[in-house]
C-alpha cells in the first residue's frame, strides 16, 4: 500500500481498489494542538474497533458514512472522500471551550442540541466560524453547511440512544465530512472517545480523551471500558 496522508493519530493508504482507502488508527495520542503527545499501546486498535462499531450502527439508521468494513487490528477500509476543511461540533451538555467562551458552568444541560462550525487549522487552533465565513472563503457553501448540520443532528439522535443504553452520557463530539465523486456529502473521519466527550451517567466519570488532557488516569483502560459497555470485543496485545 502507498501512504497518502499522515495526521497526528491516523494514516491513509491506497488499496488495490480505486476509490477505496485503508485508514490506520495510530497509538499516538495528542492534546492541546499536539503540544502534549504520547504513544499508548492498543489505543489505535481500540479506536478502530469503537469507530467501526459506531459507523455500522449509523448505517442501520440510514446515515451514510465513508466506512466500508474493519480490516484487521487498527485498520478500517473506507471510501475515498474529498474532505471539507471544516468540522461540526454537536453539544448536548456544556463542557470545554464553550464554557470558556460563554461563561457556562460545565455540566449544564443545554436546552437542545447545539451545532457549531469550526475551521480545521492546527496553526490557528481550529477557530469557531459561521456559515458566511465558510461560504466566502470556499471551505463549504451554505447548502453544504445546512446539510452537514442536518446529518449531525441525525447522528446525535442515534448516538445519544446508543450511549444512553450503556449508561454513558454523550456530552459533545466533532464530525468531519467529505464529498463523494457525485458530490454527495458523507460523514468521514472517525467517531471515537478521541473525538467525543463521554461521561458515566451516574458518577460523572470521564470516559474520553479528557482523561489524557487532565492526567486523570490510564487512557487505554478507559477506552476499553467504553468498548466493553458497547459490547465491542477488542483483541489487545500484551
Short description:
This protein is 29% helix and 33% strand. It has helices spanning 43-60, 97-102, 131-136, 142-164, 210-213, 219-230, and strands at residues 3-6, 10-14, 20-25, 28-31, 36-39, 67-72, 75-79, 82-93, 109-119, 128-129, 168-179, 185-187, 196-200. Strands 8, 9, 10, 11, 12 and 13 form a 6-stranded antiparallel sheet that branches. It has a 5-stranded antiparallel sheet with strand order 1-2-3-7-6.
Account of the protein in words:
- There is one protein chain.
- The chain folds into 2 domains: 3-80 and 219-230, Phosphorylase Kinase, domain 1 (2-Layer Sandwich); 83-211, D-amino Acid Aminotransferase, Chain A, domain 1, CATH 3.30.470.20.
- Helix content is 29%, strand content 33%.
- The protein has helices spanning 43-60, 97-102, 131-136, 142-164, 210-213, 219-230; strands at residues 3-6, 10-14, 20-25, 28-31, 36-39, 67-72, 75-79, 82-93, 109-119, 128-129, 168-179, 185-187, 196-200.
- Strands 8, 9, 10, 11, 12 and 13 form a 6-stranded antiparallel β-sheet that branches.
- α1 (43-60) packs parallel to α6 (219-230).
- The longest helix is centred in the middle third of the chain and has 23 residues, at 142-164.
- It starts with a strand and ends in an 8-residue tail after the last helix.
- The mean pLDDT is 96.
Content-based structural category: alpha+beta
* String of helices and strands: EEEEEHEEEHEEHHEEEHH
Q: Give the mean pLDDT.
A: 96
Overall 3D geometry? Answer: globular
> What's the total count of β strands?
13
**Main sheet record:** 6 strands, antiparallel
What would you report as the Rg, rounded to the nearest angstrom?
A: 17 Å
Report the uncertain regions.
none
* Helix fraction bin: 25-40%
Number of helices: 6
> In the residues, how many domains can be counted?
2
Share of β-strand residues: 25-35%
CATH architecture of the largest domain: 2-Layer Sandwich
CATH topology heading of the largest domain: D-amino Acid Aminotransferase, Chain A, domain 1
Distance between the termini: 27 Å
* CATH top level assignment of the largest domain: Alpha Beta
Q: By CATH's scheme, which homologous superfamily of the largest domain applies?
A: ATP-grasp fold, B domain
Quaternary organization: single chain
